[in-house]
Prior knowledge:
3-stranded antiparallel sheet, mainly alpha
Amino acid sequence: MKLNKSLILGVAGVMMLSSCNDWLDVNTNPNTPTDMSADYYQRLAHIEFYTSHMICISGRPTSFLGGDLTSNRRTTTTGGVANDGYYAQWNMTEWNGTTSYQWWFVGAAANLGQMIKFAEDAEAWHYAGVGYLIKALGFAMMNDLYGELPYSDALGENVTPVYDTGKEMFEHVLEDIDKGLEYLQMPQGADAVPLAANDAWAQGDVNKWIKFGYLLKARQLNKLYKKGAGNASDLKWDVNAILACLDKAQQSNADNITYRPTDSGNTPNDNLGWGEPTDWSGFHSIFDTNYPIYMQTRRLYDNLTNFAGYNVEDPRADKILMWAHNNGQDAKEAYGQTIKYSGEWRRTVGVDMNTLIRMNGTIEAPSWVDGQFKIKVENHEGDTVFVALRSSSTGFNSKPNMFYYVDANNDPKSALSGCFYSRPTTPLYIGSYAEACFIRAEILFSQGNKSGAYEAYKNGIKANIDEMNEQLAQWLPLNNAYADCPSFTLMTQADIDNFLNKGIGTANDITLGKIMTQKHIAMMYSPEQWNDMRRYDYNPEIFLNWHVPAEYYVNADAQLKIPMGKYPRRNRVSSHEYNYNTANLNAIGEYLVRDGAKWTGPESTWWNELDMWTIPVWWDTNHAD
């Protein structure tokens, strides 16, 4: 959006260009760079970086709503708002919606218009095609998170761009996907720069991008579930069109679109002011370097250790659930959950958000005192049974490994393992074969094809296990300490086979709940989790072990924002919109639908109503317009 100026200059091409000097060479005058200075191929890695981080940033609040994540506190120690702690009890805050907006519009989208135009002028059709797919991906996520926003007018010259309706945004996403696929299948112009020169997501593999485009289209068409069965051209839930897209999408993990961050310790910092390197994971930035301390929930623990009551532990449990160095803790059980030990390590139990445990102050993060963890747990001093979501880095933080040491001097006995998904070099699976499998399983199940649904469901679980094992195999040789920590060791084939054969059910007892819950696990911390939960109206029979957090029922402020019987349906739009684009923001209120009817409140205040969080986005309604 032109009201947000492009910030491309200074990122140095993120990962692909060899040095800042190389970057400055592209400018007409390096001392006075302009929006026209960088060519199409030099913008791509920058756009991919900020889009990757936007996906991660968006996955944090949606993981609270999805029930897998909580924080150690409801408020800060000074009495201020701990935004994530509030989100975990459905006491919604604007803060959790602002950053996604900024990183998309300011970091990524501000460069997309020029990148696409320059690429088209140069007949660099692959760059233009990738540009359209990223544009569709980003604006689809904006539509998912906020509902209505500028789209068709967003990347032009208008400093106060006009809003598109939710339906119009949805249609534009599909149009951009089709345009991107068209361009990707055209031969490059003779002088066009090869896509591989700056493509951090697929290393210039055009076939991967085409498959991603079809997955993106299947993902988008599947959001039309509430519109009823019919033709995709009429914006109806078209199962045949979805399956046709999946037939052209990823067929194995080798087709995945994956952002693979590094941790070199000497890359430039991002332009949006976080002061963090541009080569490490967005999830690491969010979960491991921020306050408050993040904790995993009882819901996640139960789904990983006893999925659907089969009494078979998921081999991913040790990799997703955090571990702490064990310093004398010998309890066998806590809060109704088994405490697992392995050598000198002890695995976390989950915070049960179906209780008021956080209101009792029992899950504070531990401090390191006299060579041991110290914290009050169940009325005694000792190790906490809850392990914080913390890890560190060898590059930027100059630590001996990726463990987080509570002791400032890196005492090995103060180590925390972190989670597979939150380390500085954890891949971000932007478009995966696992997701394609689960969408297929959902569609086939809806058609009554239980055997086909089960095969796709099982393939999706296996695909996720395999992609995790692939990354574990890269981490394990990097440091001898990892071999003793269950969070880093490889999942054995015996454990994998046992789980797939005995822990996920059969074709005879396959249910939509098992499919969607396993998709939830395979897409850990993805914003797509929240999309699925809204499509199926937070149904606990479809999202196993999920429940409305107990704290919500005793929090009057939360109930003003999410009245009883309703659910979070959208984020509040960023303050940039109501501060600088107020007239267009107000005007879009005419098109909103809530409680099965058009919005009837004052247009000028719809976005500031206490319960605006419950207004569904367009695809989350059964209305055509």
